[in-house]
Amino acid sequence: MQTRFGHIEFIYKVGNLPFYRDLFTFLGWGTLIDGDGFLGLGDPNGGSFWFIPAETNAVNNRDALGVNHVAISAPSIADVDATVAYLRDRGVAALFETPRHRPEFSQGDDTYYQVMFESPDRVLFEVVYTGPK
User: Fold this and answer.
1) What pTM does this model have?
2) What are the chain's domains?
3) Sheet containing 30-35, strands listed edge to edge, beginning at the edge strand earlier in sequence
4) Is 65 in a helix, a strand, or coil?
5) Is the confidence at residue 22, as pLDDT, over 90?
6) Residue 97: closest CA among 110, 82, 84
7) Which of 7, 15, 40, 131 is deepest in the core (most CB within 10 A)?
Protein backbone atom coordinates (compact mmCIF):
# COMPACT_ATOMS: atom_id res chain seq x y z
CA MET A 1 0.00 0.00 0.00
CA GLN A 2 1.27 3.48 -0.89
CA THR A 3 -0.33 6.35 1.06
CA ARG A 4 0.33 10.05 1.45
CA PHE A 5 -0.85 12.88 3.65
CA GLY A 6 -4.43 13.90 2.88
CA HIS A 7 -5.82 16.76 4.95
CA ILE A 8 -6.31 18.23 8.40
CA GLU A 9 -9.48 19.95 9.53
CA PHE A 10 -9.15 22.88 11.95
CA ILE A 11 -12.01 24.26 13.98
CA TYR A 12 -11.42 27.98 14.54
CA LYS A 13 -13.03 30.73 16.58
CA VAL A 14 -15.04 33.15 14.45
CA GLY A 15 -12.91 36.20 13.78
CA ASN A 16 -9.62 34.28 13.55
CA LEU A 17 -9.93 33.11 9.94
CA PRO A 18 -7.86 36.03 8.53
CA PHE A 19 -4.87 34.80 10.59
CA TYR A 20 -4.92 31.40 8.89
CA ARG A 21 -5.69 32.77 5.42
CA ASP A 22 -2.81 35.26 5.62
CA LEU A 23 -0.33 32.80 7.21
CA PHE A 24 -0.87 30.03 4.69
CA THR A 25 -0.89 32.47 1.77
CA PHE A 26 2.48 33.74 3.03
CA LEU A 27 3.69 30.12 3.24
CA GLY A 28 2.76 29.58 -0.41
CA TRP A 29 -0.43 27.52 -0.08
CA GLY A 30 -3.20 28.03 -2.63
CA THR A 31 -6.87 28.66 -1.94
CA LEU A 32 -9.17 25.74 -2.73
CA ILE A 33 -12.39 27.19 -1.28
CA ASP A 34 -13.01 30.47 0.56
CA GLY A 35 -16.51 31.46 1.54
CA ASP A 36 -19.13 31.57 4.30
CA GLY A 37 -16.49 31.04 7.01
CA PHE A 38 -15.20 27.89 5.32
CA LEU A 39 -11.60 27.95 4.03
CA GLY A 40 -9.68 25.23 2.22
CA LEU A 41 -5.97 25.70 1.48
CA GLY A 42 -3.77 23.30 -0.49
CA ASP A 43 -0.04 22.67 -0.74
CA PRO A 44 1.76 21.79 -4.01
CA ASN A 45 1.79 18.06 -3.07
CA GLY A 46 -1.98 17.71 -2.74
CA GLY A 47 -2.21 18.04 1.06
CA SER A 48 -4.78 20.44 2.45
CA PHE A 49 -6.00 22.26 5.54
CA TRP A 50 -9.70 22.96 6.00
CA PHE A 51 -10.84 25.67 8.40
CA ILE A 52 -14.37 25.34 9.80
CA PRO A 53 -15.97 27.74 12.33
CA ALA A 54 -16.38 26.42 15.88
CA GLU A 55 -19.81 25.49 17.18
CA THR A 56 -18.75 25.53 20.85
CA ASN A 57 -16.33 27.50 23.03
CA ALA A 58 -14.34 24.43 24.15
CA VAL A 59 -10.60 25.19 24.43
CA ASN A 60 -7.81 23.18 22.80
CA ASN A 61 -5.33 21.58 25.23
CA ARG A 62 -2.24 20.61 23.22
CA ASP A 63 -0.72 18.81 26.23
CA ALA A 64 -3.65 16.40 26.44
CA LEU A 65 -4.01 13.28 24.32
CA GLY A 66 -4.21 14.07 20.62
CA VAL A 67 -2.24 16.28 18.28
CA ASN A 68 0.43 18.46 19.89
CA HIS A 69 1.41 20.66 16.94
CA VAL A 70 1.38 20.99 13.16
CA ALA A 71 4.69 21.33 11.31
CA ILE A 72 5.07 22.98 7.92
CA SER A 73 8.32 22.21 6.07
CA ALA A 74 10.25 25.15 4.66
CA PRO A 75 12.80 24.92 1.82
CA SER A 76 15.53 26.94 3.61
CA ILE A 77 16.73 28.52 6.85
CA ALA A 78 16.04 31.91 5.22
CA ASP A 79 12.40 30.90 4.77
CA VAL A 80 12.10 30.05 8.47
CA ASP A 81 13.65 33.44 9.30
CA ALA A 82 11.21 35.13 6.89
CA THR A 83 8.38 33.42 8.76
CA VAL A 84 9.77 34.78 12.04
CA ALA A 85 9.72 38.32 10.57
CA TYR A 86 6.20 37.77 9.19
CA LEU A 87 4.97 36.66 12.63
CA ARG A 88 6.79 39.46 14.47
CA ASP A 89 5.19 42.06 12.15
CA ARG A 90 1.80 40.69 13.21
CA GLY A 91 2.55 40.56 16.93
CA VAL A 92 2.80 36.74 17.07
CA ALA A 93 5.51 35.61 19.49
CA ALA A 94 7.95 32.83 18.72
CA LEU A 95 7.83 30.18 21.46
CA PHE A 96 10.28 27.83 23.17
CA GLU A 97 13.38 29.93 22.45
CA THR A 98 12.91 29.62 18.70
CA PRO A 99 14.01 30.23 16.04
CA ARG A 100 16.96 27.95 16.60
CA HIS A 101 18.82 24.90 15.39
CA ARG A 102 17.84 21.69 17.17
CA PRO A 103 20.77 19.26 16.86
CA GLU A 104 18.89 16.67 18.92
CA PHE A 105 16.36 16.40 16.05
CA SER A 106 18.82 16.45 13.14
CA GLN A 107 20.53 13.54 11.45
CA GLY A 108 24.15 13.37 10.34
CA ASP A 109 25.45 16.70 9.07
CA ASP A 110 21.95 18.09 8.52
CA THR A 111 20.24 20.67 10.68
CA TYR A 112 16.74 21.02 12.08
CA TYR A 113 15.97 24.75 12.22
CA GLN A 114 12.57 25.79 13.51
CA VAL A 115 10.24 28.47 14.75
CA MET A 116 7.24 27.54 16.88
CA PHE A 117 4.23 29.75 17.55
CA GLU A 118 0.63 29.63 18.63
CA SER A 119 -2.37 30.64 16.52
CA PRO A 120 -5.17 32.77 17.98
CA ASP A 121 -7.04 29.50 18.61
CA ARG A 122 -4.10 28.12 20.65
CA VAL A 123 -3.06 25.68 17.92
CA LEU A 124 0.70 25.16 18.08
CA PHE A 125 2.49 25.49 14.71
CA GLU A 126 6.07 24.89 13.64
CA VAL A 127 7.77 26.05 10.46
CA VAL A 128 10.91 23.95 10.03
CA TYR A 129 13.81 23.51 7.66
CA THR A 130 15.67 20.19 7.62
CA GLY A 131 18.77 19.77 5.48
CA PRO A 132 22.31 21.06 5.10
CA LYS A 133 23.25 24.12 7.19
Assistant:
1) 0.91
2) 1-58 (3.30.720.120), 60-133 (3.10.180.10)
3) 7-12, 48-53, 38-42, 30-35
4) coil
5) yes
6) 84
7) 40
